[in-house]
Amino acid sequence: MVRTRFAPSPTGYLHIGGVRTALFNWLFARKHGGQFILRIDDTDQQRNVQAALEPILHGFKWLGLDWDEGPEVGGDYGPYYQSQRSDRYQAAVDQLLASGHAYRDYAKPDEVQAEREAADKEKRSFVYSRTWMAESDAQAAEFESQGRQAVVRLKMPREGCLELHDLVRGNVRFEWANEQDHVIQRADGSFIYHLATVVDDHDFQISHVIRAEEHLSNTPRQVFIAQSLGYSLPEFAHVPFVAEPGSKTKLSKRKLDKYLKNRDFAKLNDLGTHIANQIGMTISAETFNPVIVDFYEQIGFLPDAIVNYLLLLGWSLDDKTEYFSRSAMIDSFSLERINKAPASFDPQKLLAFQQHYMQEVPVKQKAKLVLSFLQQAGLVSSPPSCDVGPKLTAIVQAAGDRLTVAGDILDLASEFFVADQDFAYDEKAFQKRLVDDNPAVALLREFREELAAAESFDASDLERMLKAFVEQKGIKIGQIIHALRVAITGKSVGFGMFETLSILGKPSVLARIDRTLSKVA
RNA sequence: GCCCCCUUCGUCUAGUGGCCCAGGACGUCGGAUUCUCAGUCCGAAAACAGGGGUUCGACUCCCCUAGGGGGUACCA
Questions:
Q1: Which of A150, A260, A329, A414 shows the greatest Cβ crowding within 10 Å of its Cβ?
Q2: Measured distance CA(A10)–CA(A254) in Å, rounded
Q3: Which nucleotide is at minimal CA–C1' distance from A116?
Q4: Which nucleotide's C1' is closest to A338 (Cα)?
């Protein structure tokens, strides 16, 4: 039975690199009909674990990565919160102590530190002298009488080596002599991650530990713990981390300033803040940026786009397949095809996937996506009045592929939702197309009358009308259409002209032209 | 310092000794379409880190160097 896990710590946000690792775990479990488990790494967290966990669970749900055991769903192997598993960890430590695989160490931190520095000075690798190792209760009592406190350390082998087969890396070899007597329980009784994770993985019967590459070097000590406890070993697969844009350094949420210097990253970030501002979100770079999954939900990305992009960040099926449905990715996923080198996060490619998936969304559904942005921006009331539905459909239809992210609707179509007297003019466009000696102004005046007399405001009828008008005048369509666009939308760019006229409708179009004409005069 | 891992176009990648004077995708540049902007279509430039081996033959195997990254905590 395949059982995989992802262990988020409740930090209040879901990191994009973490999701990628989680995705691989999820995919592998689903592919083999196994379970995907969420375990909460809250050992060093204070209160508010639930509050800090909520956005993370929300992110998983939004992306469609469901878990079989863990918070909210429970399971037979719980508890799934590390903070509730201390008795298990204590039992493991006791067992290790009893079997001689660990010992109480009464060294003071600075004493160990001194040894470390001495080794450093002599250019040899540090190995703890075990000077304050208590081998008997009597010795322990003596150290304690000196006012010393104990930590529990692993009594690591000092010769031989460990050979491991990693499902991504292949065979890896470690010399035991290079390993320290790592601490597994602190002086205050709390437990170190490595101990906890080994115990949990065993208790949860995890079959495959799929985690970030940074844990590769930590694996020997974990193997030592597991073997000393008599556990059978899970398979390991160390996947490369997601790197910074244009770099090989691990992507982190703390180096935002640096990433913002990357053009593409900055562009994505700007898109986000632009939309956030329009919908009145109060944001800070701490909680709202492209490293955090929530960012994408807030500005109207599609989960499928993100998941597909992340899938290909370090994994590929072959030399041509780019788009994967959920079931296709589950079918074709394998650990063996995960790349060994870190892959850097490319905002442009993410956007390209988003564009592709957005193009596939049916108009009805796009209208729904877009509606919430218009409501948040205060352009449409909630609940919307009943004429909004058809109008929205027409707008989304007219927007076509211009809509990449749902939040784009605000730039694309806000003029359709403001009063005729209130839409704003792009002054540059106005100057270019509508200063009073521009011949387009007279044409506009004339065409206004034709529009007023029009019986139909269907896009196709309007197109026929303008073409006839243009032909009759002996001019090119460009000589009036740009002026018309500015006159009714205030902007120099937009949807197809005839769709725009049609969506606005006759009364609005006439009112807007009149308003513009009076501004020209 | 020591240990471990990694290294194909700007980026994501295909490539498991001859199919590769290296294929695809994003991006870039050029062109076409057009009422603008998108989109779409066509085309171009663009990479095997370097050096030694092994082999009839190396992007593919081995060694070295360089570069990058991770670990080395009473962090996870």
A1: A329
A2: 16
A3: B72
A4: B13
